[in-house]
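Progress narrative, work stream C.
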Amino acid sequence: MASVNKAILVGHLGKDPELRHTSGGAAVCNFSLATSESWANKEGKKEERTEWHNIQVWNKAGESCAQYLSKGSLIYLEGQIRTRSYEKDSVKHYVTEIVAQRVQFLSTKKGANGRNEAAADNGEMGGAQPGYDDDVPF
């Protein structure tokens, strides 16, 4: 039986993106994304819940995110949910991330001159992860 692992999020960046490169030269951009929902409780008082997501964007799309996005930017993204583990001080830690395959900028970045700059040509990017070959003929 087939399975699906797809996340679709619209939210605001919680911090400026951080760009780094792997030892193989691949660019990877990391940032946090906040998604919020609000509702009225039984007493009619407004309540709100915010979820924080760890986002990872690879290669050219990651470089564009680092260049054009900043804390507070609104984006749409599609990706896969991934869990990884690491050990620190002999304690195993788990991290759940969204590895984005498609990112669309929904807001613009203010430039040094105070004017809004276009985020990208069409504001949308896709990016394959390392190990995926876009030239596969099937």
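Work stream C, second folded protein:
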Amino acid sequence: MRKLIIALALTTMLGAAGAAASALPHVGARFTGPTSAKTVNGFGDKVTFVAGAKSLKSFSFGTLGCFGYGTFPVGVDPYGTSLAQLRQTIPMTSQGVFSVTSAKASWSGGDDTTKLKVTVNGQFKSSTTATGTISIIETGANGGTCGPAKMTFTVKLGNT
């Protein structure tokens, strides 16, 4: 009886460890998916990044900022021309949780004096799917700030 209990306990622990390990992405895998940002001219916003062993790299997403972006010509993807790229990696725990606070981002959507600080929080639900939130605080040339503008995202393995 004791051997059976030990065998069941070990099996349960190994199953739990396997489930936790499966929530980590493969190193070098690219993830892409939609955000909850409003569709403009029929174009939706996307987030993309590459998974590392302990961090997310090349994290980028489209944003129109929170001060406003101007006009949106018909047929032009405003998110594709207004990309924010984090300048640093996003740390990730061994449980697949990732987070960074007030990270500086380069942004092709504003002028050179406009600055973005980005907070990202999320978690891998499996080795192929993650969900999270992005919060943006924008600072203009005159020192005025707006935000945080928030959006959620769901990404999947590959270029979807």
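The longest helix spans residues 2-21. No further action is required on this item.
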